[in-house]
Amino acid sequence: MNFWNQELSLLKAEGLHRELKRLESSQSPRVIIDNREVIMLASNNYLGLSTEQEIKEAVIRVIQKYGTGSGGSRLTTGNYDLHEQLEKELADFKNTEDALVFNTGYMANLGVLATVVGSEDVIISDKLNHASIIDGCRLSKAKFLVYKHGNLARLENILKRSSKYRRRLIVTDGVFSMDGDLAPLPEIVELAEKYQALVMVDDAHGTGVLGSKGAGTIEHFGLEGKIDIQIGTLSKALAAEGGFVAGSKDLIELLRNKARSFIYSTALAPATIAASLASLRYLQSHPELFKNLWRNVNLLKDGLEDLGYELLPSNSAIIPIMIGDREKTMELSKALLVEGVLASGIRPPTVAEGTSRIRVTVMASHSVTDIEEVLDIFARVGRELKLIR
Ligand code: PMP
Predict the structure, then answer these.
(1) Ligand 1 pocket by C-beta < 6 Å: which residues?
(2) For the structural domain made of 53-284, what CATH number should be given?
(3) Cα separation of 365 and 376, whole Å?
(4) Entry pTM
(5) CATH topology assigned to domain 16-45+287-384
(6) Which atom from ligand 1 is nearest to the alpha carbon of 107?
(7) Dist CA 128 CA 125 (whole Å)
(8) So what's the ipTM on this one?
(9) What's the CA gap between 209 and 363, in Å, rounded?
(10) Which of 70, 237, 291, 313 has CA atoms 20 to 30 A from the CA of 272?
């Protein structure tokens, strides 16, 4: 019997089979797929920095000096001056004492959660938290309690009922990756203080996007110094790959000693670190990036709403267009691609049944013309599929 084939057939029958798209160009506002140029509306390269000349040149210089692979884990032979410099600058950017880089945001969540809590503790988690948080919670062996998305009354109820645990950790995305909305962090911090809980915020989609200097959701809400554990990723606005944790000196020292996904994995290559470092410096000296990003977000949101699409009320560079039905969602995504827009269809199990959506993301590097063309295509395709009038 072919087990794999059976499982694949099941996925196909349920309409949940996934396929990879193949890009043949950089993550620019316009990309090449199947020899055809389409407008990219699905990249997390929010500030468009992955193609910035100054950053590419910094990476090339680092490759010339250090070569390609890092050659070992950070605690053996893979720790370069560049890793430490990036951690110092990330801590400054996030206004914390220290920071630690992991190989992905996913690994940061796994390593941190499995280190800071254990079987005597409880994790209190927003229903829509990212999969890597959920997997980290499972790995930690802590009791795992979930509150309805953004619902403070439910969160408080759980806090009231959970005083028997050694540690209580509230964990939330800063910007929710599929809805694009923000966690109510000021209220969460208030509750955490009232019930002596720790707070961990995963700001993968806020970093480089929110706050006046782009430091993220915590800067946006003015909560510097009030969040115990901040997670970020280098793979989105910072245009490279990797994840990081920012927090107190003691937290970072503990993670350096105990986080298994940090200890037992080869360090990120110097070139990757150089890309993040150059991006971090670049975004701090180019405030016009934020202006362009928000201009594009607002142009696209207003335009889609004027066309009659239903948007979720997001506050980030993530704009979810609600369709509901999974087949219709994938049909729209395919038709958009044929007409020249790459926009991802998101369906269960990533989102709840009946809430399938097109999740579009904009970049600072999109021009007004790009956005206008996108809107023309959404108008045409939406009418053809009878999604709008
Ligand atoms: N947290 C959130 C909220 C995310 O959206 C993602 C990536 N999609 C991650 C963590 C994982 O980060 P990375 O891609 O760097 O592994």
Answers:
(1) 104-106, 109, 130, 132, 173, 177, 202, 204-205, 233, 235, 243
(2) 3.40.640.10
(3) 19
(4) 0.97
(5) Aspartate Aminotransferase, domain 1 (3.90.1150)
(6) 16
(7) 8
(8) 0.99
(9) 10
(10) 291
